[in-house]
Amino acid sequence: MQLLSQFLKHQKTDEQLVELIDTLMVACKEIALQLREGALAGILGTTDNTNVQGETQKKLDVISNDVLKKLLLDNPLVAGLASEEEDDPVPGNPDGRFLVTFDPLDGSSNIDINVSVGTIFSVLELTPGDDPALHSTYLQSGRRQVAAGYVLYGPSAVLAMTTGKGVNFFTLAHTGDFILTRENVKIPPQTREFAINMSNQRYWEPAMQNYIGDLLLGSDGPRGKNYNMRWIASMVAEVHRVLTRGGIFSYPWDAREPAKPGKLRLMYEGNPMSFLIEQADGIASTCRAPILDVQPGEIHERVSIALGSREEVEALLSYHSADK
Ligand code: AHG
Ligand code: MN
Ligand code: MN
Ligand code: MN
């Protein structure tokens, strides 16, 4: 059995990055404990607040955000943070080295029905001279991430993480240690499983409608095989399934908010998940370009997402290039 800290040292991970990851895991363990209490601690349900996304905040959105903020700002390595639940970036130690962007509780709509949720994090470095109180400081492309991952609070709590040397899974033991349970995860290039919110079908662009329509034709259609569908409504759970057994997950542009490229956020959903997917030999695309190449214009900007098994995502992209 290898502990997370031992594994990171074995991978010769930068010592300060190991220390930051340890802080993130202390926070995620606290969140996992709060989630386990659920209704008993009176922490289900919503608050009266609306976040910058226009979403009604769940009590656990706020609790998990506060846990992460407090622990990260207590770590002198942290120059600043940006969160789904914070309108503006929160500056930390001006001499700090790392910027952390995070989705403290992903899949919030599932919290009251006791379905898996997660915490997503992305680590960037402060460009010397930049002010961590300013939005511009965080607007770095996903290629600049030094680490990214999530903790999925499911039947077991599982950390999936990369520092650019592959993807590894760690399971939270009753001792409070994250133990290596799967090393060098690689996504199968082919799949028969797709994940998309079908209720939005009439709002998609034609290329997406045509692609999904062909999946539904199964072995009689151009894809030549039958597919199964999953939709959990927690991106962390969908991505974990894709990393674990392959698949394609998409939340594409839709006409409900045509000025926005989709529902999911680039800086703390799209980028960290895309780093993981590419490190596991999958593809993560906006349907027109790699997500990691997108140059952010604002911290809470949205991004269209299609990610997963290489050959399946390539098939989807062929519908979009044909549809120029
Ligand atoms: P969050 O709970 O952090 O706001 O994210 C929810 C996201 C993502 O986790 C999930 O894939 C998607 O919303 C589900 O959207 P629909 O409810 O429209 O299906
Ligand atoms: Mn939300
Ligand atoms: Mn989310
Ligand atoms: Mn969230």
Distinct compounds present: 2,5-anhydro-1,6-di-O-phosphono-D-glucitol, manganese (II) ion
What's the alpha carbon Rg, rounded to whole Å?
19 Å
Fraction of residues in helices?
25-40%
Portion in strands: 15-25%
Pfam families: FBPase, FBPase_C
Catalytic activity: beta-D-fructose 1,6-bisphosphate + H2O = beta-D-fructose 6-phosphate + phosphate
Binding site for substrate: 106-109, 197, 263
GO molecular function, one term: fructose 1,6-bisphosphate 1-phosphatase activity
Structure characteristics:
5-stranded mixed sheet, 7 helices, 8-stranded mixed sheet, fructose 1,6-bisphosphate 1-phosphatase activity, about 25% strand, alpha+beta, about 325 residues, binds manganese (II) ion
List the SSEs and their pairings.
Blueprint: H1 4-10, H2 15-37, E1 46-50, E2 56-58, H3 59-73, E3 78-83, E4 90-91, E5 98-106, E6 117-125, E7 147-153, E8 157-162, E9 167-172, E10 178-182, E11 193-195, H4 206-217, E12 228-229, H5 235-245, E13 248-251, H6 266-279, E14 283-285, E15 305-308, H7 310-322
Parallel strand pairs: 3-5, 11-12, 11-13
Antiparallel strand pairs: 1-2, 3-4, 5-6, 6-7, 7-8, 8-9, 9-10, 13-15, 14-15
Helix pairs in contact: 2-3, 4-7, 5-6
The structure holds 2,5-anhydro-1,6-di-O-phosphono-D-glucitol and manganese (II) ion (MN) (3 copies).
